[in-house]
Amino acid sequence: MEEMHAMAINTEWKWIQWAGRLQSIAQNGLLYVENGYDVERYQSIRQIASEIMEAGSGTDQEVILTLFSKQTGHATPKVDVRGVAFKDRKILLVKEKEDGGWTIPGGWADPNETPGEAVAREVYEESGFLVKPVKLLAVYDRTLHGHEPPHPFRIYKLFFLCEILGGEPKSSPETLDVAFFRREEMPPLSLGRTTPSQINRFYEHLNQSNLPTDFD
Questions:
Q1: What would the pLDDT profile of 16-32 be if each residue is shown by its tens digit?
Q2: Cβ distance 106 to 81 under 8 Å?
Q3: Which of 47, 151, 9, 159 is nearest to 92 (CA)?
Q4: What one-character DSSP code corresponds to residue 110?
Q5: 77 cis-preceded (ω within 30 degrees of 0)
Q6: In what helix (H) or strand (E) does residue 23 lie, and over which residues does it extend?
Q7: In this predicted model, what pLDDT tens digit does every residue of 134-147 receive, in sequence order?
Q8: Superfamily assignment of 78-215 in CATH?
Q9: Is the pTM here over 0.85, yes or no?
Q10: What residue ranges do the domains of the chain occupy?
């Protein structure tokens, strides 16, 4: 069912996938290009990508071009880390200020951090809890798991099972609330960050600690 849902979303939002692929081609081309004429060609490809994004999203093209132009070096997926923490079989969630939905706490990994350091920092910043990552539960490609809305860049989402060491619930500039929820009492989720099927899967990991790490 999740795969069918993801397929429907990918079809509906195909334009953003096209734009993202063109942007990656342009970014890599501009990095490795040796012929001056090809520079103009790759810049034209980036221009086309921005036009597709503008037509689909309504965002001003100059804003999109600025975003794309800031992407330098070889185009690679972005890394999102999430900390899955349980207390009395309730899962820790935070309420996002951006869309009002609830999510497993996390965010972008920063340079010069290990994945474990990144997820511990993100959980503390968003929830107020000190945690220790103990297992990598999943590495998911965001485009394949029903997240809405789509993102212009490819994202790998790393979910870590975390042990709570201390701290107390505390909101942040990005979050409005912090709470633990039972599996059968999930609040409305921030689907761009966390999906119901992911939470259900992590409860399976909780019930079967020997399950291997999920990927793709």
A1: 889 888 998 989 999 89
A2: yes
A3: 159
A4: P
A5: no
A6: helix 14-32
A7: 999 999 999 999 89
A8: Nucleoside Triphosphate Pyrophosphohydrolase (3.90.79.10)
A9: no
A10: 2-69, 78-215
